[in-house]
Amino acid sequence: MKKIRTLVVDDEPLARARIVKLLESIDYISIIGECKNGSEALRKMKDYRPDLVFLDIQMPDLTGFDVLSQQELQPLPFIIFVTAYNQYALKAFDVHAVDYLLKPYDDDRFMRAVEHARHQISLKQDALLHQKMVKMLEAHQHEQGELLQHLEVKEKGRNVLIRAHDIRYIAAEGNYLKVHTPEKAYLIRYTLQSIEEQLDSELFLRIHRSLLLNTHFIRKVKYEGNNQYAFEMKDGHCLLSSRSYRDAIHQYLDEERIKREL
Q1: 4-142: which CATH number, 3.40.50.2300, 3.10.580.10, 3.90.1150.200, 2.60.40.10?
Q2: What share of the chain is helix, strand, coil (3-state, %, to 5)?
Q3: Angle of helix 107-146 relative to helix 13-24, nearest 10 degrees?
Q4: Residues 87, 71, 65, CA angle at the centre, nearest 5°?
Q5: 150-261 maps to which CATH number?
Q6: What is the CA radius of gyration of the chain?
Q7: Which is nearest to 110 in space by CA: 220, 25, 184?
Q8: CA end-to-end distance (rounded Å), the chain
Q9: Which residues of the chain have pLDDT under 50?
Q10: Model pLDDT for residues 139-188, shown as the tens digit of each residue
Q11: Is the pTM higher than 0.85?
């Protein structure tokens, strides 16, 4: 877990110093500032966006509740109220404070409050990470759903579906494309640019203005000089790249090298 960025707010210097001293002994706490009144607290909370705030309630300008009522602070950080007045306890939990320290408190009570805050922050971070991963997965699935999964071609008057993963390479031939599969080659009326945009860019590599390869069917790559490469396919065909696609080829070769090293 990363360090908890913590702000200390109290109008009493001694009370503030004690909180800081106790927090400095906790390795997972990072103190990002101190405030002596509500106005300072409002400004620093808005600028620094702390994870946790130790917040006094009774202060001469703005109370702790006044600070938390400011819309620009939403969503609020976790709050541990520190006060000498127990009549605010219920109201403190109404604003979802994680704990409430009533002065004078001992060190053990303080440490329990911090540990409780740590647990709550960890749960929130885990939930946010889970939400982020779910969104990434959904986005990936949505993206995959829009990719071309099959090509439909006509063969002797009937429709034939070719799985995208089964395509070895595609070569442009005039106004047509020749789609090479393990069984045979099919002619379709398409442009290479338009079909490249619909195929998975992590699977297909453009090496020439008229050649698009399925990287799963590449046996080996040999440098021919002058920024050109010879791609030997698993079916024995050897396809030559053009210089204008060298950057994409270099990226592919780098990624393959990294995979082998892992």
Answers
A1: 3.40.50.2300
A2: 45, 30, 25
A3: 60
A4: 15
A5: 2.40.50.1020
A6: 32
A7: 25
A8: 26
A9: 137, 140-141, 262
A10: 544 555 556 778 777 777 777 888 888 999 999 988 889 999 988 898 88
A11: no
